[in-house]
């Protein structure tokens, strides 16, 4: 069972932390692509920063709904949006509910070029489980690569009360900048795409009071 910090003393600093080696990332990537046919286009599901910073060219982008998982600030970040001493929180796809996001279609001949960087970005600590899952779009169902939360990873944290969550987000910063910016940029990207996430929007509105303005909704 995953050990959790007590609500009265949540910091994440005492939890185990290890970056995956290049060999571990490659083994995970090879396993995810073991049924992929060279040259075949692939779909990738984005629910967080991939919506506003995909870092790859794509042939097509659609709004999509993933069933069975929901977007949540459930992953400690000790590099990108925090440090080992003062971790931040980033989004993962936790069990239950559904998630509205986007799917990107990548040209098959570009998969060998783009996927190693995608794995370095998403799988630096092995906190996600890469899975191929059907996603519903207005143009039909597509089978997309989805990075869902690995609940057995020490970096996983269950839902927190909003005051404690906000405290963590406000204090943390990592190599990509403040955790607050990450949360607000994700909220902005969802709003711009016409995606409504009531939980995230409530958090972002609180952060707006700290001087991180959100755009008006569509």
Notable traits:
globular; single chain; disordered N terminus; Hypothetical upf0131 protein ytfp; five-stranded mixed β-sheet; disordered C terminus; 218 residues; alpha+beta; two-stranded antiparallel ribbon
Low-confidence stretches: 1-9, 214-218
Rounded average pLDDT: 91
CATH class category label: Alpha Beta
Oligomer: single chain
Order of helices and strands: HEHEEHEEHEEHH
**So, CATH architecture?**
Roll
What general outline do the C-alpha atoms trace?
globular
**Fraction of residues in H or I helices:** 25-40%
Cα-to-Cα separation, first versus last residue: 42 Å
Number of strands: 7
Q: What is the strand arrangement across the widest sheet?
A: 2-3-1-5-4
Largest sheet: 5 strands, mixed
How would you name the CATH homologous superfamily?
A: Gamma-glutamyl cyclotransferase-like
Organism: Achromobacter animicus
Pfam family, one: ChaC
EC number: 4.3.2.7
InterPro entries: ChaC, GGCT-like, GGCT-like_sf
Task: Characterize the structure shown.
The protein is α+β, with helices and mostly antiparallel strands and 218 residues long. The chain has one domain: Hypothetical upf0131 protein ytfp (Roll), CATH 3.10.490.10. The chain is globular. β4 (128-137) and β5 form a beta hairpin. It has helices at residues 22-32, 49-52, 111-122, 162-171, 179-193, 198-208; strands spanning 42-46, 60-77, 88-106, 128-137, 140-149, 173-174, 177-178. It is built from six helices and seven strands. Pfam families: ChaC. Its EC number is 4.3.2.7. This is glutathione-specific gamma-glutamylcyclotransferase. Keywords: Lyase, Transferase.
